[in-house]
Amino acid sequence: MIRVAALWLFGLLLSIAATVVTIQWVNANLYGPQQPVRDYIQALQNGDGARALGLLGANVPNASPALLDGQALKAAAEGVSDVSLGNPTTLDDGRVRITVSYQLDGEGHSSDFTLEPAGVQWMFFHKWKFLPTSLPVMDVSVVNQTEATVNGVAVPMPAGKNTFSLLYPGRYEAGFENQLFTAKPSAAVVDSPASKPTPITLATAPTPALIGQVDDALKQFVDKCAQQKVLKPSGCPLTFDTNNQLTSEINWSIVEYPKASITAYNGSWVIAPLTFKAKVQFQEKSYATGAISTVEKVQDHYFTARLAINGEQVTVTPVVKY
User: Fold this and answer.
1) How far is 153 from 175, CA to CA, in rounded Å?
2) What is the top-level taxon of the source organism (predicted)?
3) Domains parsed from the chain with CATH numbers
4) The whole model's pTM is what?
């Protein structure tokens, strides 16, 4: 009986020891402070902003939340690779710091997360929560537009500006493009709540399609002017002076067409002053000698034009001053 009791006691002790070891292993691996960090990173990669914010418990600034969920958030985390969680570093008051190392934009980065105890679960398993912080923000502006794209998602830009709350770590790329205007994309990497990304300014510029439309309108305008058989066509920048008597038909031809240069100015788009070359041909008779001569002259001519854009509708209005 003593031998049986001893065996039973030995087995009980082994069971207790195994249970303690199991609890310690589960606490360290499934309920340790690293697990909330793993869950948070996974939520970012899934584009699950609600889950990520719920875990992080961060204060959300008074800024646009457009990038805190869905495709924009998922795209921000897509560049995060080779993720490695460091061992907990013990701090004061039972808190711990977890350092996450990773690659982002081809460079090594790290983010520190501070967690604190949050009680126990099922009597044995420790719970941890993030120490609350405030989310970083990013300022974006775009020239003469009221929207832009960030990580492939359209975002509003009232008066051409907006400030966005960001989850970290992640890469946020802003850009703009439509049929008429485009801006070179610019990106910011955010790896901590203390990150202060350089403000992104999207310098929109006309696309070749818009330049082509404006140039075509200007070409039509000067071609119509050239069809008039007078030295000073009405409503046109063409003009030629002579003191002699005309003895033939007047013919204008365009040698070099005007090319538009479109720039932003005072909240709108303007066309720089225009120049083009035209040739005038005719015969004239001298009042002094009666001799008849042929005039064939190429000259520069100048005018301006107003540009109006309504959606994708482009209107060019030439302006001629005498």
Assistant:
1) 10
2) Bacteria
3) 22-130 (3.10.450), 137-206 (2.60.40.1120), 208-319 (no CATH)
4) 0.82
- Within the chain, which residues score under 50 in pLDDT? 10, 12-13, 15-29, 122
Structure tokens at 33: 């402070």
* pLDDT value for 119: 62
**Cα–Cα distance measured from residue 79 to residue 102, given in angstroms and rounded to the nearest whole number:** 10
Helix, strand, coil fractions of the chain, as percent rounded to 5? 25, 40, 30
Residue in the block written with tokens 């009666």: 290
Close Cβ partners of 30 (under 8 Å, ≥ 6 residues apart): 125
Pairing of strands 147-150, 170-177: antiparallel
Query: Residue 188: which H helix or E strand, with range?
Result: strand 181-190
The pLDDT of residue 120: 66
Q: What is the reported pLDDT for 28?
A: 47
- The structure tokens 């983010």 sit at 111
Contacts 24+ apart (CB under 8 A), 23-28: 23/124, 23/125, 26/125, 27/124, 27/125, 27/126
DSSP per-residue codes, 58-87: PBPPSSB-TTSSHHHHHHHHHT-EEEEEPP
* Largest Cα span, the chain: 151
Pairing assessment for the beta strands 107-121 and 96-104 based on DSSP bridges = antiparallel
Taking the C-alpha atoms of residue 92 and residue 167, their distance in angstroms, rounded to an integer, is 26
Of 115, 59, 109, 67, the closest CA to residue 87 belongs to 115
Instruction: Please give the structure tokens belonging to residue 31.
Output: 């309920």
